[in-house]
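Subject: for your reference before the review

Hello V.,

The reviewers asked for a structural picture of the protein, and I figured it would be easier to keep everything in one thread rather than splitting it across files. Below is the amino acid sequence we used in the manuscript, unchanged from the supplementary table.
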Amino acid sequence: SSWSGAAQLPTEAGPQLLQVTDPAGGVNKLVFDVHKYLDVDNSGTHDECVTDNLSVFQNLVSWLKTNNRQAILSETGGGHTQSCYTYLYNELAYIKNSYPTMIGFTVWSAGAFNTVYELSVTPNADGSDQQLWIQAVKPNL
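And here is what came back from the structure prediction:
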């Protein structure tokens, strides 16, 4: 949606949300929460990744800097394929290098999900890490 989509925020809900202020005053404690997946329809339901979203995040970071605001990427992820290892790594590296405008990221999914779920970063039954975690996420922590 336009209030949480990283691609839509700068041109849709974002301009109106810039008017929101902290009840204690100012905006320096407010952070935009954005989502962006890497699959064909930005749903996070496909195994293959088709983009690293760099142009989306370059646009978002530019908009945030112009407005002296910050955001966190709170939902992203990819499948267990080479395209996702590469694209998710690139996306997260950009987010990491965009600090303090982008204050961080979380990946979907973690927790007690089935380890065969297409976006799982939950450790395997033997305790070993998923390749998506090893190749894309962990290097960007």
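For the response letter, the relevant points are probably these. Helices lie at 14-17, 54-66, 82-97, 131-137. The beta strands are 31-35, 70-75, 102-105.

Happy to draft the paragraph if you're swamped.

O.
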